[in-house]
């Protein structure tokens, strides 16, 4: 199996002025090809250091993919240094030279000498066309290594990689094995608990591999398998997925790049179910999250933020008896908030959030004690209690996600 | 002058699932310190390859900064591999161990063995506190090299770097000269405009240096001076600050790590001015932002999210005449929303947000057309129009910040 290293050349990366998103893009593409990427390297526009980086990469990687340093300025040095290192000459690629000449002629502008540099390639390399710029790319096999040179700007690099470099890479290096990967998303279980539950699989399994990542109040699990065919790899992934779900399937909410709010709002839109919310300690966070999605006004009508006992009564019409006798951190208050907002906003679902955000306690309840009420037309109103920690804003974000999860569970159960 | 290398450890980076934004952040900070970063490296969760990467980095760099691989799972290996390489033991840091134990005890949850791993540090290292997580960071000097270990999640890494790692780095490696830095925060002016206004200073000035960063709808300017004494450095910073404020001082809202919402809520708390909000396209984002701050219930009472014309009338009592004749994207609607929420919630200030989030237009107004209403007891209600772009969630966040800015301007003018 061929291994690749992505070498980004550019001092602006080392100054933190831009993020190396090119490496992530190429890595994703190569993972899909079944080619392992074991290293990313960033080095500045410095001849000596670039030369050293090339030597180190040749020692540990089969495919060296360079991004950046193909432009017209003095500090663009990638192909010059690599040519010298490989003891190759630089020659002009007529296709790119014509393109540059034409550009300047058609604009009646003077072409400077350094513009021509962008059409120069390393002798013996296959030219990779630049459909969105002037700098020619290169593909070169030499001494058991493959060298690929791509421009730095993502708008030029990405199409060049996808259209011209990647097919050559797959042809020369891929083919033998296929890599298949699946993302599982969990809510309501911590990363360490999930990792403990799956520990034997994570530690002993070589193919597929299992990796867990902590997201914002959620856990992401990636299952990755390699095999000779796509079907075989998918089958391996599927078997491991089933074993994971057998252990912690109750916490799974979705697959791939989807988020829980995205999933739930799509379900509401699909089924034309309208919703409103009454929020105390989350203070609008749930509604703000719903409104992130364009076109949501078809099902989202609005709601209340009742941050004080006073506004719970004045604008949300929660009874003074409930507030006096049960308090605002109670099942009764949550239920009444959900019922009232549903009635006042005239929607199918009303959801409510009340509780103690923290760090201080409230009405004798410790920080992190929260209630979520769910009022649905023609259904019994329910209130659910959760007990979180003392981190105020963590609790608020977690409660909002929990609210989406409760709606999803209701929709799943009443499909 | 010391040179640094940033080593990110994590297979998810090599698969392109996340972008190495940590390296860019740390590079920016080190550039401000006057420390050169010559290499970024990314390596996977693989003991052999990580060990080789450490050796290579020791050969070419003075300071090795690791990000990632400090978590509780089997594939978190950074400190284990480095300890072995340096022939050091791993010991428990009691501060982080207590933090982890307390977390699980307070939730009556079982602490798994792997959780404890996060409190383990390399013997002889200075602990870097993790204010937003459990994994301890480390700072270690050994054999003429400095080793810094930071967690991978940016929400944990950034504060740990800024608060604890960076002062140690500057102290140990900056050395002979004193570095003084000041952060100026601007709202209402774009980064490119500000950079153009300050271009001559940015280009020609060596000491102090001026760097501009685009934040979330704001611009941050850092002025950094070096001198023999703290007083001398502060004087240099102050002179440059005055020159910057002479040019763009009207857009300055604060200094240092403070945010505009934080500043405004502190002013409201200080002056005991109560507030409520009525939000249409921002849908709770303003209120959710206010409620981030503990103790805010003293002045924040709540409000409405009126996402439809219907709820604007039913729960916020906006007159049907205004909605019919002027529409919801109008000065009149914004004013009435602000007046009504102030009356219904019985507060000193009522603020309203109505407009077109985008990407589509509404009532003939293009995406990005917004109105903010400000109703204050014993003052004339005002409505302000702003025209933004087509990015829905960018517009929503920007409007919320604009709302805080309008309140600040009112409070400044009526001190």
Automatic annotation (TrEMBL), chains A, B:
<dbReference type="Pfam" id="PF00994">
    <property type="entry name" value="MoCF_biosynth"/>
</dbReference>
<dbReference type="Pfam" id="PF18146">
    <property type="entry name" value="CinA_KH"/>
</dbReference>
<feature type="domain" description="MoaB/Mog">
    <location>
        <begin position="5"/>
        <end position="171"/>
    </location>
</feature>
<dbReference type="InterPro" id="IPR036425">
    <property type="entry name" value="MoaB/Mog-like_dom_sf"/>
</dbReference>
<dbReference type="InterPro" id="IPR036653">
    <property type="entry name" value="CinA-like_C"/>
</dbReference>
<protein>
    <recommendedName>
        <fullName>Putative competence-damage inducible protein</fullName>
    </recommendedName>
</protein>
<dbReference type="InterPro" id="IPR001453">
    <property type="entry name" value="MoaB/Mog_dom"/>
</dbReference>
<comment type="similarity">
    <text>Belongs to the CinA family.</text>
</comment>
<dbReference type="Pfam" id="PF02464">
    <property type="entry name" value="CinA"/>
</dbReference>
<dbReference type="InterPro" id="IPR050101">
    <property type="entry name" value="CinA"/>
</dbReference>
<dbReference type="InterPro" id="IPR008136">
    <property type="entry name" value="CinA_C"/>
</dbReference>
<dbReference type="InterPro" id="IPR008135">
    <property type="entry name" value="Competence-induced_CinA"/>
</dbReference>
<dbReference type="InterPro" id="IPR041424">
    <property type="entry name" value="CinA_KH"/>
</dbReference>
């Amino acid at each position: 199996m061929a291994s690749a290293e992505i070498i980004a050349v550019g001092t602006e990366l080392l100054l933190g002025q831009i993020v190396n998103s090119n490496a992530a893009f190429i890595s994703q593409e190569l993972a899909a090809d079944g080619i392992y990427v074991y290293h990313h390297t960033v080095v500045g526009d410095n001849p000596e250091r670039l030369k050293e980086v090339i030597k180190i990469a040749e020692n540990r990687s089969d495919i060296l993919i360079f991004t950046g340093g193909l432009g017209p300025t003095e500090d663009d040095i990638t192909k010059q240094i690599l040519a010298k290192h490989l003891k190759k000459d630089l020659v002009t690629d007529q296709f790119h030279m014509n393109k540059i000449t034409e550009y300047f002629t058609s604009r009646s502008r003077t072409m400077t000498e350094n513009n021509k540099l962008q059409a120069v390639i390393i002798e013996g390399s296959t030219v990779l066309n630049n459909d969105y710029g002037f700098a020619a790319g290169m593909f070169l096999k030499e001494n058991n290594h493959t060298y690929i040179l791509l421009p730095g700007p993502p708008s030029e690099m990405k199409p060049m990689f996808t259209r011209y470099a990647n097919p050559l890479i797959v042809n020369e290096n891929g083919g033998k094995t296929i890599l298949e990967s699946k993302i599982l998303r969990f809510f309501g279980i911590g990363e360490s608990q999930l990792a403990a539950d799956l520990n034997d699989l994570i530690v002993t399994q070589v193919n597929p591999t299992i990796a867990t990542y902590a997201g914002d109040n959620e856990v992401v699990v990636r299952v990755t398998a390699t095999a000779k065919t796509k079907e075989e790899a998918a089958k391996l992934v599927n078997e491991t997925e089933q074993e994971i779900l057998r252990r912690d399937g109750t916490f799974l909410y979705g697959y791939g790049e989807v988020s829980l709010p995205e999933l739930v709002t799509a379900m509401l839109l699909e089924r034309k179910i309208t919703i409103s919310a009454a929020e105390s300690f989350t203070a609008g966070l749930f509604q703000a999250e719903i409104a992130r999605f364009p076109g949501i006004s078809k099902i989202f009508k609005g709601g209340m933020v009742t941050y004080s006992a006073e506004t719970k009564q004045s604008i949300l019409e929660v009874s003074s008896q409930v507030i006096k006798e049960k308090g605002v951190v109670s099942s009764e208050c949550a239920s009444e908030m959900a019922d009232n907002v549903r009635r006042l906003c005239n929607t199918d679902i009303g959801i409510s959030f009340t509780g103690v955000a923290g760090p201080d306690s409230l009405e004798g309840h410790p920080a992190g004690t929260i209630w979520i009420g769910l009022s649905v037309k023609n259904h019994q109103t329910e209130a659910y209690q959760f007990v979180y920690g003392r981190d105020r804003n963590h609790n608020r974000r977690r409660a909002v996600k929990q609210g989406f999860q409760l709606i999803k569970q209701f929709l799943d159960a009443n499909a």
